[in-house]
Amino acid sequence: MSEQKSDEKIVLTLEEPETALKTDIASQSVQQPKETAKPVYVDNSMLSEEEKKQVSEFAKTIDLTQTNTILQYGASAQRKVADFSDATLANVKTKDLGDAGNLLSNLVVELKGFDMQPQEKGLAALFKKGSNSVLSIKARYDKAEVNVDKISESLENQQIQLMKDIALLDEMYNKNLTNFKELTMYILAGKEKLADVRKNDLPKLMAKAKETGLAEDAQKANDLDQLCNRFEKKIYDLELTRNVSLQMGPQIRLVQNNDTLMTEKIQSTLVNTIPLWKSQMVLALGIDHSKQAVEAQQEVSKVTNELLKKNSETLKIQTIATAKESERGIVDIETLQQTNKNLISTLDEVLKIQDDGRAKRAAAEEELARIEGELKQKLLEINQNSTSTK
Q1: Based on the domain organization, do 125 and 36 belong to the same domain?
Q2: Residue 12 forms part of a structural domain
Q3: 66: helix, coil or strand?
């Protein structure tokens, strides 16, 4: 376990822990293991000089002749580790990184599901639905953006929760480090006391029992030896608990590392993937606008060229006609010939009619003269007859 400074001051005590803990430890003490506990080397390099001094002073206060001392020794530290393990387990159980993973998967599906390709293709679609293509793309983009924003909001909430969890795991790691150090101090103090009793007190009692030969002295020596064995097993229990605490450190870091990786992934998605997608959508819409503008310009150019060709043909025809017309006289020679012919014919007809008219008039004059003569003759006759009658 890596060493970190902890502000929490460790206080070693021989006081009894809570009732629940006393019951657990008492039941454990009844079921003593039959095998001999194997000594475990505990390094004190992680302790400060003040803590090492505290261990030595605390070791002097341990009284192995008191049964409760052995029962309760280090129990408070063990309870802290047990409670801490429960808290860590609860934190792991309630943590569901699947939500964040599912959100990221949903985001990928949403981004892949967006299709920039228009539903209709060709110039017909361009002029049939002109702006409808862009509007359709924008509508699909807006719909996708709404879903992406919802997922982003959920991811932000997940990120905030994960960051809180990371901070909590830091606290848990430091707390576990404090528990580990406290157990280490109990073990070192216990081993120091056990070594002192076996080196000094126990040999004295055994020597006294051997010297006196009294059963009570022999019982005292045997009781102390049994207490030393029980205390040794108690220290071994603390070493097992310490090992649990030792393993807890990497476990906390693993969970914390997973949270950190997921947080970084979410962060990358929020600040890179989603903004990049949105910027690409803006570019795509701009490109689509440009594409339509180019296609429209091409169509305009096509129509313009066709119009120019048609106008040039018309201009050619009109120009030729105008040139021909400009080269013509005001009256065609054929027209003059026909007109002259018609005029001569008319004059001939007029002369003929005039000649006929003169002839008819001459004949009429002769006839009138004749008629006038006849009338005069008749009148004369009538006049003569009237005169003769008288």
Answers
A1: yes
A2: no
A3: coil
Tokens in use for 288?
Answer: 């689509």
Whole domain around residue 97: which residue ranges?
A: 19-288
What pLDDT is stored for residue 114 in this prediction?
Answer: 56
State how many domains the chain has: 2
Structure tokens at 1: 């376990």
Residues 268 and 347 placed together within one structural domain of the fold: no
Q: What is the DSSP string of 249-277?
A: HHHHHHHHHHHHHHHHHHHHIIIIIHHHH
Q: Is 118 domain-assigned?
A: yes
Whether residue 1 contacts residue 177, with contact meaning beta carbons closer than 8 Å, is answered with: yes
Asked if residues 148 and 273 have their Cβ atoms less than 8 Å apart, the reply is no
CA–CA separation, 62 vs 64, rounded Å?
Answer: 6
Tell if the pTM clears 0.70, that is, is over it.
no
User: Which residue reads 């030393």 in tokens?
Assistant: 228
* CA–CA separation, 49 and 52 (whole Å): 5
Are 226 and 95 found together in one domain? yes
Nearest to 12 by CA among 169, 236, 199, 193: 193
Structural domain ending residue among the three candidates 253, 288, 323: 288
For residue 80, being part of any structural domain is answered with yes
Tally DSSP H helices, then E strands, for the chain: 10, 0
Residues 6+ apart with CB under 8 A from 99: 154, 158
Establish if 9 belongs to a structural domain: no
Are 124 and 286 in contact by the 8 Å Cβ rule? The answer is no
Q: Are residues 109 and 205 in the same domain?
A: yes
Same domain, 166 and 264: yes
What does pLDDT average to in each consecutive run of 10 residues of the chain (390 residues)?
Answer: 58 57 34 43 77 88 84 82 73 56 64 54 48 64 75 84 88 88 90 91 90 90 92 91 88 90 88 81 75 80 87 88 74 80 88 88 88 88 79
- The token pair that represents 303 in the structure block: 């129509």
